[in-house]
Task: structure prediction
Amino acid sequence: MRKSIIANHAKDKVLKNNIFKIADRANKMKKEHDDIIDATLGMLTHENGKVFKYSAIDYLLKNFTDKHYYPYAPFAGTRQFREGVMNWVFGKHLNNIKETFHTKVIPTAGGTGAISNTVYNFNNYNEKILIPNYFWPAYENIADESNVKLEKYDMYDENHDFNIKGFKESAIKLAKEQDKLFVVINDPCNNPTGLELGEENWEKVVMVLNEISNNKVPVVLLLDIAYIDYEKDGYDSSRELFKHIINLHEEILTVISFSASKSFSIYGLRLGAQIGLSKKKKIINEFTRVNEHSLRARFSNVNHPAMRAVGKIFTITKYRESYIKELELARELLKKRADEFTRIAQEENLDILPYGGGFFIAIETNKENIFEKLIEEHIFVIAFPGLIRIAISSLQFSQMEKLVRALKKHV
Ligand SMILES: Cc1ncc(COP(=O)(O)O)c(C=O)c1O
Result:
């Protein structure tokens, strides 16, 4: 008998519940029906369904000369991009971050590239990473691809606040079992729930991680900030969590995954960054060594024009100001949609999870066939175990009443 053509480590791989496949199904139905409500993809669109473009990005991308389009991008990123990302991500905390940590920025193919390289390089095969029970499904694909398993804790307590107690118990237990802890936190503006941890919880998360690190257990915090620029109270508020990150134990490695897809609406161009922070130079040297290798081996240099355009927005005042103005409009649009959704949900007595900003509103439900039931009503949302996610980022005001009523009927 012939051996399998698939490698042993790949033989069980199946892409289940892929959000892109569901969005494709919605798009196919749109060709036959004009009343399809598509709240699937985490992509920001205007009321007319067109992508929310930022004019500075659009202008820059359309006006580069060949030398910024066709050649490979600098492997380590342009200086404008590297320094600009630090500046943009940390805002008023930048100096404090730089004085406290050794840092390294590595350009990646989207936030996904940053997450994927981090999971791969900091976990042994069959080790577990700690995530909440509601999570972005790609984390599971990424873990599978790296032969890593998931350990979950309940994200909410009985009051629908972040379940810090459950997080602490699970973190301590896993650290004891493995003599190692790798935690993924997607905040602010969690996908799929819209949860925002807030400062009080961040302070406690840092205390838990420090307690574990104090016991000589290696700790990695992967902080996925994909939706940070869409937090409902704006730029400064979304960066307050860094006040607490600064207090992390000296042996902890924090890896921040930044998504240019979300922050600049350049979903198709595949750009992001992996930012390493540690108080130990040795840890950052190791971080750089292994992740630069993965960069070369897995997807190589990133998208050149995207990196140039983003680098210019970060560093040239006129582009930055134009971007910031439009980003405020984007936040306002999301806020109006969230407010309207919440208002109708209240009228209909439909419970939604607390919304802290970002692209998604979620509703807990145990109805297993809700996804298909909603499709019968020409509504596409994403179903997770115990929850459905509504991408308000691509939902139009005119669709909300019908959507909320259908949700109420089926949850
Ligand atoms: C929670 C979360 N993290 C990271 C990403 C990364 O996106 P990208 O690879 O497009 O930057 C996404 C995209 O949907 C996301 O929802």
